[in-house]
Structures are given as structure tokens and as C-alpha cells.
Amino acid sequence: SDCVGSVKGLAEVQKDYVHGDTCIQYEDEIHKHTAAENEFVVLKKDVDAAYMNKVELGAKVDALTDEINFLRALYEAELAQMQSQISETSVVLSMDNNRNLDLDGIIAEVKAQYEDIANRSRAEAESWYQSKYEELQLTANRHGDDLRNTKVEITEINRMIHRLHSEIDSVKKQCASLQTAIADAEQRGELALKDAQVKLAELEDALQKAKQDMAHQLREYQELMNVKLALDIEIATYRKLLEGEEGRWAHHKVEISEVIFSISTVLRAVVSSSVRGSYGSGTALGLGTGASLGSGLSVGESGFGTSSGRDLVGGYSSGAGSSSSMKIVSKTMTKRSFRN
Question: Which one of 8-22, 220-234, 295-309 scores highest in mean pLDDT?
Fold first, then answer.
């Protein structure tokens, strides 16, 4: 649970860090987007002003062109009128025979003066027109360059706006993906925590059951050890009795038939006492010498039987519903049985 808690805390810290970083980036992108929009609005105003200035300058160029054409036509009309007047004017002169007047020279001089005036006027008009045209051309070129630069800047700003929109969409997608990943991590953490808690409960139950089984087995082992100790004591006692009886029986020469009859009698008595469910039993062994042996033992739900070939029959019964017997069949065979 500590590991799951630390993982959950680390996920929370990482979630807060990613959320804060994403919010900061998103706010920066919003500020950049707002600044770009403001700059675009300012540039759009400048472009509109430049376009209006261009339109006004174009109108002025058209007006000046019309004015130049009008003045040119006017000068040409005036020149033609003056030439026609000069050609159609009839001069009446009184002839003075005493003077010689050079009329052709006078006319040529006047004509030259008027032509000079017309040429100067034409040259001045053309020079003024050319200077105005060049000035307007330079202004138009300058505004055209400004307009092209403004269009390029507008294109760059539009590209930047599209890029910022794409980055904002990408950041939004990343934020949504991170939120989904955080939700999945939280869900997996909760499921892992629940699974760990279930497994911990199962392990605790298994441990408790194992402790109970171990305690039960220890009790059974202690009972078995107690039974074993009692049986060892009983066996030692019977061994001593058998050794003592061997000496007696060697003197009396007891026949095998009598021993077998005595053993069968004892066995019938033991079986009868077991069938009756008695918690204590007694057996008697009659020997030719008048010696007899009786024994009884009470144990919990266990039985033990032993016999030896020394013509000795002994038996005992156990408490809690079970019995055991010990018998001797021959002088060379020893049989023990334990029933639980």
C-alpha cells in the first residue's frame, strides 16, 4: 500500500506539474496570439491607409494628367489661334515714299518672338509635367513597395497565426491526452490498490488458517507424544514383566496349548470389552503356576497392541471410544498395532 501510495503521489505531482506547464504554455500562446492579432490590426490599418493614400495619389495623378492635357490643348489652341491671327491680319500702312519699311523683317521678328514664347511655354509645361510625373511615379513606386512589404508582412502574420493555431490545437490535444493518461493511471492505481488489498486480506486469512492448522497439529503432536511416552512406559513395564515371567515359566514348562487357550480367552475378553464401548478394561492371564497379570490403560481416541512370544498376554483399552490390545502368537514374532 505504501508503494501504491507513493506511485499515486508521484502521479499527482507529475499531473500538477504537467498541468501547470501546459497552462503556462497555453497562456503564453494566447498572449502571443493576442499580440499577433493586435499587430495584424495595426498593419491592416496601415495597409488601408496606404491603399487610400495610393488611391488619392492615383486620383491626383489622373487630375494632373488631365490638367496637363488640357493645358497642352489650350496652348496648342492659343498658338494655332495666334498663328491664324498673324496669317489673317491685314495691316494697312500708309506709304511714305520717303521711308523704306522692312515689313517682312518685322513680321519675321514678331513671329520669332511668338514662337519663342510658345516654345518656352511648351518647354516649361513639359518640364513641369515631367517633374510632376516623375515625382508621382516615385511616390507610386514607394507606396507600391510599401504595399508589397505590407502584403508580405500580412502573409507572414497569417502564416504565423495558422502556425500558432496549429500549436494551440496540438497543445490542447496533448493536454487532453495527458488528462486521459492521468485518469487511466489513477484508475489503474485504484484497481491495483484494490487488488493488493484483496490479496492482503487473502494472505491474512491464509496466515490465520495456517496458524490454526499449526496449533491443531501441535496439539495432535503433543497428544501423540503423550501417547508415545505412555506406550514406552508400558512397553518397558511389560518387558520387565516378561523377563520376570520367563524365569518362572521355564521352571513350570507350560504347554503351548494352554498358552494358546489363555490367549484366545484374553482376546475374546478384549473384543467383548471393545464392543461394549467400555473406557477401561481388565485382562487376566492364568498360568500353570498360578501366576496372573492384569493391566488397564485409558487414552484418547487411540489404540495400541503388542505381543511377544514369551507366553504373556496383556491388554488395555483407551478412552474416548477406542481400544487397543497386545497379544503374543509365537516365540519369534512381535506385532504392534496403532489405530487412530
Answer: 220-234
Retrieve residue 265's grid coordinates: 480367552
In which residue ranges of the chain is CATH 1.10.287 found?
2-90+101-199
Amino acid at 269: A
Please give the backbone phi and psi of residue 282, each rounded to the nearest 5 degrees, phi first: -135, 140
**Cβ atoms of 51 and 144 closer than 8 Å:** no
Helix, strand, coil tally for the chain in percent (to 5): 75, 5, 15
263, pLDDT greater than 70: no
Q: Give pLDDT tens digits for 61-101.
A: 888 888 888 888 887 887 787 777 666 555 444 554 445 55
Cell of 115: 514662337
* CATH class of domain segment(s) 2-90+101-199: mainly alpha
Cα 37 vs. chain centroid, distance in angstroms?
36
